[in-house]
Write a structure and sequence with these properties.
- The chain is an alpha/beta fold.
- It has one domain: TIM Barrel (Alpha-Beta Barrel).
- It has an eight-stranded parallel sheet.
- α10 links the parallel β8 and β9.
- α5 packs across α6 and α12 crosses α13.
- It is globular, with a radius of gyration of 19 Å.
- Bound molecules: ligand FNR.
- The site of ligand FNR has 23 residues, from α13.
- Belongs to the FMN-dependent alpha-hydroxy acid dehydrogenase family.
- Pfam families: FMN_dh (PF01070).
- One of its GO terms (molecular function) is oxidoreductase activity.
- Keywords: Flavoprotein, FMN, Oxidoreductase.
- Its cofactor is FMN.
Length: about 350
């Protein structure tokens, strides 16, 4: 059978393979899924206004983020539970990310421990995503594990003081991983697996404590309000990810790409601003970068690749997006992902 030739086709292939409860866990969002739909729809409403006859050669796609090089500005966003999608789980994803020469942000809720992910994918550039745990000692244990695994940054998720309410999971009664799978990073010193806890009390003080605890760069994920973006700069944050968690947390917040310009303006070039949410095509990547993003992350597209065809599927999704970015850049008359300006995008009035 011919391999899928777009993220959309990968989603269909993944859906055909996955248990419906697991498909809905990956695909779904919070509440009425207004934000989930908005993430993709907002990219559709933005038009590209290309330049012609620029005489550019093969465009430059590579980016360097916090000292880590990625061959294309498309990172693997942190997503939980990869072994629900494929038996090799995060090991397969990391090998594919390494082969595609991009950065993978390993979820704290991964079903393979971050050290084992690193060992399975030599050369992979990994960052570690953290939900601050109410027990500070356990949070520190997680940070140390990320450091020992060689992760290049700590991605602190700020948009999840509680877990989003997701009707699809309620309908299926999907609340826990099946027997045999667990969040391997959550083992304490005795080997017992702790539940991931969300911390309603998470505050800027926690960011300060993390800043004191580790020399890893801290990336704050889930920022939408420009005032929070400005505030983050005073707390030693090295980068921001504009994200609404793929529409899985607070429903009816704006599409990520709609929130992007305000955050970019607020930080005024002092730290890189990344975006995730709704990126499905190379043209979406260009639009985000034209509006000031330094790179984007993809969440579900990677899961669809993994469910459809394991490591090979993830590799193909990342390669497809890379090829689409390259084509879109050429068609826009751009020499590099670094040369894109807001004049490339027509925003609806
Ligand atoms: C996520 N996301 C997420 N974020 C995070 O910080 N930690 C996590 O463990 C997870 N887990 C997770 C699971 C699944 C199934 C999804 C779909 C998403 C959010 C993720 O990092 C990212 O913000 C969104 O996935 C981006 O939107 P797209 O690319 O899926 O549209």
């Amino acid at each position: 059978m011919r391999p899928p030739s777009s993220v959309r086709e990968f989603e269909a292939a993944a859906r055909a393979r996955l248990d419906p409860a697991h498909y809905d866990y990956f695909a779904g969002g919070a509440g009425e899924e207004v934000t989930l739909r908005a993430n993709e729809a907002a990219f559709g409403r933005l038009a590209l206004l290309p330049r012609v006859l620029g005489g550019a050669a093969k465009p430059e796609l590579g980016v360097t983020l916090l000292g880590d090089r990625a061959a294309a500005p498309v990172l693997v966003a942190p997503t939980a539970f990869h072994r629900l999608a494929h038996p090799e789980g995060e090991k397969a994803t990391a090998r594919a990310a390494a082969a595609a020469e991009t950065i993978m942000i390993v979820s704290m809720a991964s079903t393979v421990a971050v050290g084992d992910v690193a060992a399975a994918a030599p050369g992979a550039r990994l960052w570690f995503q953290l939900y601050v745990q109410p027990d500070p000692a356990f949070t520190e244990l997680l940070v140390r594990r990320a450091e020992e695994a060689g992760c290049g940054a700590l991605v602190v998720t700020a948009d999840s003081p509680v877990r989003g309410r997701r009707d699809r999971d309620e309908r299926h009664g999907f609340h826990d991983l099946p027997t045999g799978l667990c969040c391997e990073n959550m083992r304490d010193e005795t080997g017992r697996v702790r539940p991931i806890e969300f911390s309603p009390a998470i505050s800027w003080e926690h960011v300060d404590r993390l800043r004191d605890m580790t020399s890893l760069p801290i990336v704050l994920k889930g920022v939408l309000h420009p005032a929070d973006a400005r505030r983050a700069l005073g707390h030693g944050v090295s980068a921001l990810i504009v994200s609404n968690h793929g529409g899985r947390q607070l429903d009816t917040v704006p599409a990520a790409v709609e929130a992007l310009p305000g955050v970019v303006e607020a930080v005024a070039g002092t730290v890189p601003v990344l975006l995730d949410g709704g990126v499905r095509r190379g043209t979406d990547v260009l639009k985000a970068m034209a509006l000031g993003a330094s790179a984007v992350g993809v969440g579900r597209p990677v899961v669809w690749g993994l469910a459809a065809d394991g490591e090979r599927g993830v590799r193909r999704v990342l390669d497809l997006l890379r090829a689409e970015v390259e084509d879109a850049l050429t068609l826009c008359g751009a020499r590099s992902v670094h040369d894109l300006g807001a004049d490339l995008v027509l925003r609806p009035c």
